Structures are given as structure tokens and as C-alpha cells.
Amino acid sequence: MSQPTSAHSTQPGPTTRALHLMNSTHQAKTPHSAAPPALGPETLAILERIVERAFAQTMHMIHLANTRTDKRPGDPKVGGHPASCASSMHILSALHLVVRQPADYVCCKPHASPVDHSLHHLMQLFRRSPSDSPGLEAGTWLTPEEQKRAMTGLRQFANSDNPDVFQSYHARTDPDSFHFLPSGSVGIPPVVSVYMALAYRYASDHRWQVPQGAHFWSLIGDSEFREGSLLEVLPDAAERNLSNVTWIVDYNRQNLDGTRIPNERSLRGADCDRIERTAAANGWKVIQLRHGALRQRLFAMEDGDALRELFEGALSDYEYQQLLFSRDPARMRQRGAAEVPRAKRLLERLSDEELLAAFADLGGHDMAQIVRVLNECRLETQRPTLVIAHTVKGWHLE
């Protein structure tokens, strides 16, 4: 494949896969008929290294926005949301690095936009759009140096020193806006993804040329799922069998202003259960991505079913969060045995390190599990899918 070059440099542009993602939009793509093979240990190790690097770049990008000294009246607000970004690191890394295909569209919860920018920066996927600064050629790839400079421009206006900047949330003018839906208003982009999928089907049914196999992915905050717009569109997507729509709920159990504590007596369980029942009642396939590989191994042991019971509802979200952040194995054993007495023997057999690891082993931070589930979503042929990915808000920020 010929490689576009920047008008300002002869430096290499994006990687081969990145070019495939950016330039193959109009090439017909046949939907997958079989799941790809599971990722091997070496590939998973490489992906984890990329996650760590993207995590560091994300936090630095937010730090620069938080410590700006040149803010003027009327400038975009400074700041960022590091804890909300941290909880979605593995989800977005799996999507962008492994699962996403060229014709796919993505929309992401607004507060996680720096994660997308960091991953796209690592893949060298920044280019200029027609609406960028006059005098700069649209569609040209940014050089590595220009991309590095753009990463310092979160929540800034473009200027002569740095014409390539990022809005507070995903925007059409961002250098990595290819097939990304703007996400300044929570609850709206996932709705747009549903009707874009319907528009693609309409166009295909009327023999207009559209990319085949396009999937429409949305990452949604768990509190965002209470937006009325999302609840209104749920039955529409299912009634029309839009199986190429996947919504992923980043279930980190916290609002911006603290831990969310729903009335579990009236809701009959945690908020993840309410979300599951709501989507299932409206015809969606629902996947609870609760546990990582370590927990799965523990569940297969003697008394493992009791440990599963502890993690799947015996502890409230609030108490689970308290125990997780306390990092107190004795307290974990005491509360676990009090809630599920049958779990006491297994809790006592585990070392302190194993117990701490088990409490932190959520499915939304297990790369292999996330990739497997997202590939399963792409293979679905009958109905839209909602994935509830259990994560830690502030992952690795302690």
C-alpha cells in the first residue's frame, strides 16, 4: 500500500495497520464468520506494555492541561479526568489495538478522550482535517514532532505555535477524529451510533455503496446510562435487529462527585444488575464482564462458588470499593466470611497477596477477556449487545 507523507516532512507516516484503518473506509469488508484465535502470552505482554505507555501519556496530557499558565478569559476550561480515563484504559486499548476495523465507528464517554488521543498518538494516526488552520494542507499526516507537540494542546485554542490541538472532548477538529463521533454531550453519541447503523442498512438495502461489516462501538459511563436518551433508543435498536451495535458500559461504580450508592432494596441488587435487566428487557444481548483470569481460576477451586457469590452481589458496590482501596487482607477475610460464611475456608487458604490480587481482578482490566468479549460482539447476528465491563476508577493512580 502506498503511504501518504506529510507536506512538511519526509518522515514515515502511520504504521501499516494505522494506514489500513485510516484509508480503507471505502473498501468492502465481509463480516467475520469465525472468532479470531485467542491472543498468546507474548502478544498480551506487548499489549500490556502499550497500555502502560498510553496510560503515562494520558496522565501527562491531563497534567499539562491542569497546570496551564497561559489561560485567558474565554479559553476552554482547563483540566481533565484522570480517574475516569484510568478505568477505561484496557477497554479502549483492546478496541483500538486489536478489535476495531477500518469501517467501524467509535464514540467514547467524553471524560476518556485523552485515552483515545494517547493510543492514536502511539499509532501515529494524527492528520489535519479540512477545517484546520488556513494555509495547512488538509489530509496530511502530522510528523512525529508535530504529533508530539499536539499532545501538549488538550483544551487549548489553536495558534501559530501549535495549530493542532484537542478540544475538551472528542470533536471533529481533533487530529484523530477519523470515524469518531463528537461526544461533548453525554447520552447523545451512543444514540447517534444506533441511527448511523440503521442508515448504513437503509443505504445497503437500496443498493448504495457502503462499507460492509461496519460495527458501531460506544463506550458509556455507568452514570451516563441513566440518561433518558439512551433508555429511549434501547427498544429501537433491538426491534431493528441492529447486531452491529455494541455499547460498553465502563462500570467503575463512581460518579464524578463520589461513590454511587443506589437503593439496593428497591433495585434488587447492584446498579450493574439494574443496567442488565433494563437492556435485556428491551431485547439486547447483555454480557457482564465481571472477572479476570485469576478469579476464574479461583472459582474452579473447592469453595470457589462461594467466592463467586461474594463478588457477584453479596458485597455492595460501596463496600467492595472500600475493601479494595483499604488493601487490608484481614478486613477482606472478616467481611467476606460475614457476608458468605461458606467462603471463609477459601479466603483463609489464600495468601495476603493472592487475596489482594483477587479483589482487584476485574474483567474490565483483563486484556484477554476484553478482546474475547468484543470479538464475540462482532460475531453477533441477531441483536445489539451491551457489555458491562467492571473496572476500577483510578486504576494504577494510587
Description:
The chain is globular. The protein has helices at residues 16-23, 41-66, 82-87, 89-99, 113-122, 144-150, 189-205, 228-239, 264-267, 271-281, 293-299, 304-314, 317-326, 329-339, 344-349, 352-360, 367-379, and strands at 105-108, 216-221, 245-251, 254-255, 258-259, 285-289, 385-390. The protein has a domain at 293-360. The protein contains 17 helices and 7 strands. A hairpin with a 2-residue loop joins strand 4 (254-255) and strand 5 (258-259). Mean pLDDT is 85; it is low at 1-12 and 16-30. The longest helix is centred in the first third of the chain and has 26 residues, at 41-66. The strands form 2 sheets. A 5-stranded parallel beta sheet has the order 1-2-3-7-6, sandwiched between helices. By secondary structure, it is α/β, with parallel strands linked by helices.
Given as residue ranges, the uncertain stretches (5+ residues, pLDDT < 50) are: 1-12, 16-30
Task: Report the mean per-residue pLDDT as an integer.
Answer: 85
The percentage helix is 40-55%
What's the end-to-end separation, in Å? Answer: 44 Å
Query: Could you tell me the radius of gyration in angstroms?
Result: 22 Å
The major pleated sheet works out as: 5 strands, parallel
Given the C-alpha coordinates, what overall shape results?
globular
Give me the oligomer status. Answer: single chain
Number of helical regions: 17
H/E topology pattern: HHHHEHHHEHEEEHHEHHHHHHHE
Number of strands: 7
Percent range for β-strand residues: 5-15%
Major beta sheet, strand line-up: 1-2-3-7-6
Structural class: alpha/beta
